[in-house]
Amino acid sequence: MNEFTEILKYTIPAIIVLITSVILIKQMIRNDQSRRNYEIALGNQKIITPVRLQAYERITLLLERISPESLIMRVNKPEYTAKQLQVDLLNTIRSEYDHNVSQQIYISSQVWEIIKNARTNTVQLINSSASKVKPNAPAFNLSKIILEDLMLQDKSPVSMALEELKNEVKKLY
Q1: Which pLDDT score is estimated for 48?
Q2: What is the 3-state secondary structure (H, E, C) of 139-171?
Q3: CA 7 to chain centre
Q4: How high does pLDDT run on average in the chain?
Q5: Contact yes or no for 93/63 (Cβ under 8 A)
Q6: C-alpha to C-alpha distance for 16 and 8, rounded to whole angstroms
Q7: Which of 41, 99, 125, 171 is spaced 20 to 30 Å from 146 by Cα?
């Protein structure tokens, strides 16, 4: 029995030291892994943030370019008929949207939906305005009706989308 007590005097402290060492090593490994994950996330953030900001800039440019006021100024030609202007406006919107569709991965789903709605509402505005004009009428008539219909709206779809986009950018900072 005396020998057993002697063995316990040496093994119990050794077991306690072993358990303490294992716990401390596990904690150190966890902390080190956590630090590495943080450094990776920080590195990714340094890469992603500028790309996201560029995406916001491109989406802003898209919205500005598909706004009816801007579209009419860019696309309208004196020799166009109303139908030609309508087709050209719609093609320009489609082209601008298709060119920037990949930017959706950098912005929230909610804001992307608002941008898609702005595009759809702008197309609807152009089509509904075009239905009020004879296809062979001068393009000026269609331009005038589009702008009048736009002024009847409380807020243009493009300006609402721009506001949401700006709010999302503000959340980054």
Answers
A1: 80
A2: HHHHHHHHHHHHHHCCCCHHHHHHHHHHHHHHH
A3: 68
A4: 92
A5: no
A6: 12
A7: 99
Residue 73 has, within 13 A of its CA and on its CB side, a CA count of 7
Q: How far, in Å, CA of 104 to CA of 47, rounded? A: 17
Which has the minimum average pLDDT: 3-7, 53-57, 66-70, 161-165?
3-7
H helices within the chain, ranges in order?
Answer: 2-66, 68-75, 82-100, 109-130, 139-152, 157-172
Assess whether pLDDT exceeds 90 at residue 55. yes
Tokens representing 63?
């919205």
Q: Shortest CA distance to 69 belongs to which of 126, 3, 4?
A: 126
pLDDT at 1 exceeding the cut of 90: no
Which pair of tokens denotes residue 82?
């109303």
Q: Report yes or no: 82 and 133 within 8 Å, Cβ to Cβ.
A: yes
CB under 8 Å to 98, separation ≥6 — which residues? none
Q: Which residue has the tokens 């956590």?
A: 34
Beta carbons of 119 and 158 less than 8 angstroms apart = no
